[in-house]
Amino acid sequence: MKFGFFDDEKKEYVITTPDTPLPWINYLGSQDFFSLISNTCGGYSFYKDAKLLRLTRYRYNNLPADSNGKYYYIKEGDVIWNPGTMPTRTPLDEYQCRHGLGYSRFHGIKNQLSADLLAFVPVDTPCEINVLTLKNQSASAKKLSLFSYVEFCLWNAVDDMTNFQRNLSIGEVEIQGSAIYHKTEYRERRNHYSFFSVNTPIDGFDTSRDEFLGVRRGNDRPLAVEQGKCTGSVASGWYPIASHQIDLVLAPGEEKELIFLLGYCENPQEEKWEAPNVIRKTTALAMQEKYHTSAQVKKAFQDLNHYWEDLLSRFFVNSQDPHVNRMANIWNQYQCMVTFNLSRSASYYESGTGRGMGFRDSCQDLLGFVHLVPERARERILDIAATQFEDGSAYHQYQPLTKKGNLDIGSGFNDDPLWLIAAASAYLKETGDFSILDEMVAFDCDTSKAQPFFQHLLRSFHYTCTHLGPHKLPLIGRADWNDCLNLNCFSSEPGEPFQTTGPSEGPVAESVFIAGMFVKYGREFQTICEKYGHTEEALQAKDAIDAMYQAVLTSGWDGDWFLRAYDATSQKIGSHECEEGQIFIEPQGFCVMAGIGVKEGLAEKALDSVKERLDTKYGIMVQQPAYTRYYLNLGEISSYPPGYKENAGIFCHNNPWISIGETMIGRGSRAFQIYKKTCPSYIENISQIHRTEPYIYSQMIAGKDAPRHGEAKNSWLTGTAAWTFVNLSQAILGIQPSYDGLCVDPCIPADFGDFTVTRRFRGAVYHLFISNPDHVEKGVKYLEIDGKQISGNLIPFEEGKKEYQVTIHMG
Ligand code: BGC
Ligand code: NOJ
């Protein structure tokens, strides 16, 4: 069952009912100002940091769900309705929501009055623009009143939800013309404020929520709207809002366009203390002027469209499979951008108050983003590296606004350091810009400790070398990629909760997954050293990698698959000897991707075991058999009911690892089958089971042990976006950036057919035609570059050349 459809031409997903199984959302904003917006106009906005600079209020866990946002009430006679249906939930004669790239459109009709709303954040200005067009579709004149509504958040979203004794006295607003300014915090020497304005004279306003709503009412039934008249309230403390009243008379066929702006402003530090209670509005007024007319706003919207056209032109595939084209060319890349911008901080499942930018997460998100805006990837890599400690370990998370490591979470996830090498190597392969290695980068945000970025990579690498356990495998620390495999919390007493912030380093628990990572990214590091002229380091790295490879074969192989780990007492985890949790997906994926066991024939065996034991029709589960009880030596993983999350759920994030692994051994059909199982577009027609947005990936799908097998959770912010794009673009379609140029090495189903890819790479455009007359799954016979035949699969990079026409002959 579907609740909408893809409009590929417009690059939109069109939702045809407000009653989607869950709110289906979109993200507005590409740099600093962001809004989340659901298909019923719910959501909120923030500047840079969803915790510290939250502009509008949202209530997670609220009832009805998703009941705060930027709302427009239309009152015609006694009928009150909203274009996206919420919050009044008045049934509409027509409803549609179109989520597009950086914008959302809503279309509603009630009693022959249509309301079309376009919401977007311009590329270069910190504000959200809402264009509302009302049209009288009837044969007689219509008299109506429009009421806007946003509820301000008092900036720090955690304080906002907790510190009421203070908050309810600090709210301040100012009204000037059609602009309502929210200036809470300005008095206390913060230099920011926000405003909500409209480009037309208003007939009334409210800025106090309780006066607008009336006693014991929710935003589904505001008294002011019912009475058709705002009260003119000026908030003083309590709950500041912004509501404009605009009375309209529309002749038959007449339409009226209104432009609303929610803006974020920062004044220069020196100005702010002149008059603590009166804000300087220069920035705000400039913004209001910038987006005052229809033409200006149309232009801003076109700029946004061009911005996306340009980004998406960097990778474009034309294959015989419309799902592949749609996902690769539109939605997968779009989601990569969103995850790059937000890490795991703010979604409908991440409250924006807990987790800022993840070290591990951001490094992985980069893998799917670096081709889009390499300059921003570079900046991000250096930001992340600056939070690293001198010994190579890292804060697990940092706050986007301050860029400081998060002390509450701390460090101790022993996979973290190696992800920095993953990100750096992806950047170097994409750009060839080795100058990044010379950039001076702080340790623990302390610039006096700055070292060239290369040193950061070296220390990342060394961190694993110096943290090995009794089997010469890497110590796992608090956890590795699998946050819930807490093998060093063995000492907690029965009945005590597991320790998520527990001992930062366990005595002996070891991870085969990190071993795989070490081999994979260690090799990248070795190559970087070689290319950068650090021969000595390259040789040392090679020895350490060879030793790790052997350690995995000796102590990390279980007979038919790779072992997952050793716990704190050196008991095997993820072994056929275990009662439950006998086989895990992560080491199979990472060891095979690292090439471990490929020539020994173990890789194939491991992947066969995955297929036999972990596969379901909805994707590959994290492990099997699911843990049916809580295990002290395993921690959080066994706290989940079987089938959910890390306890045998299907993590969409690591399914691509297996798919990539399959391409390493040339099994294109199987790789593609894995790709399809979790691919949103392929499973759009089971939206009633899957439930989350059918245009983007979710973090997890319930595994076969769960009562709700197939149901997805935690949509949008997941490393799945990046890894799937890497899988599809590099492993399956085979377009691989490498240190020496672009490589092409597809691994596809035999019946996939020929395809073309346009790829922008290091300032040139590559027009690639992949021809597969013999229907092989893998193998490139030769290339034809601008008519010249070349053996191998590397397109040599020629300085200054702007276009390459290449035919790739598979066979
Ligand atoms: C959750 C895990 C989750 C991880 C990262 C843990 O606290 O329980 O399921 O994957 O944090 O969000
Ligand atoms: C979500 C986290 O953001 C990611 O870093 C982690 O690897 C997965 N959970 C698996 O536990």
From TrEMBL:
Q: Which residues form the Glycosyl hydrolase 94 supersandwich domain?
A: 11-270
- One Gene Ontology molecular-function label: transferase activity
Glycosyl hydrolase 94 catalytic domain boundaries = 307-734
Which superkingdom? Bacteria
Keywords from the UniProt entry: Glycosyltransferase, Transferase
SMART domains the UniProt entry points to: CBM_X
Matching InterPro entries: 6-hairpin_glycosidase_sf, 6hp_glycosidase-like_sf, Gal_mutarotase_sf_dom, GH65_N, GH94_catalytic, GH94_Enzymes, GH94N_CBP, Glyco_hydrolase_94_b-supersand
* A Pfam family this chain is assigned to: Glyco_hydro_94
- PANTHER family associated with the record: CELLOBIONIC ACID PHOSPHORYLASE, CELLOBIONIC ACID PHOSPHORYLASE-RELATED
> Protein name, please?
Glycosyl transferase
Q: Which organism is it from?
A: Blautia ammoniilytica
